[in-house]
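Sample 1 of the test manifest.
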Amino acid sequence: EVVMTQSPATLSVSPGERATLSCWASQTVYSNLAWYQQKFGQAPRLLFYGASARATGIPARFSGSGSGTNFTLTISSLQSEDLAVYFCQQYNNWPYTFGQGTKLDIK
Amino acid sequence: QVLLVQSGAEVKKPGASVKVSCKASGYTFTGYHLHWLRQAPGQGLEWMGWIIPNSGITNFAQKFQGRVTVTRDTSINTAYMELTGLTSVDTAVYYCARSTGGYYYFDSWGQGTVITVSS
């Protein structure tokens, strides 16, 4: 199975600053990578698929990039409502696997 | 809008079974794969399996094979996930989620069902 690794585990960023979250796959997943945002007590919400295709309703301050084994989620100007855990997921190989998540704290 | 509404929280004893429902609305139920995932307390997400509502064909992660059954009732746009032989490690929030086309990312999610296994 493809192992997904995210770093850092926790990231503290001040409002208005940039947040950069990383995700690595143990083998290539091409661009078959999705990002999700999960706020406390809620179900995950799709942010990106195909590594960089923004899902419906996702603000432009969020961007996704990468291919192969290295992927990045960037929030260009952090807002207080971005407090959440962010997960990456590969869907290139069965079974579909997730990273352990990055918890984004607001300083 | 797409809506997936799951059944309520349950408490089960070790060795018991649980059946969770997921009612879909706002889209053509038979046109999309319907998946089940779970999230143990403070942990990440784990994909369990999917069903193709049109045919009833299912596919499960190896660790759940033999212990999970997923069915559907297309007359009421509802899918069901039954997990047997519950142990404490099955304590988790269980989600249903939809995927689009042949790509297995999840664009809509149910609200989650808390399953607690405790003696």
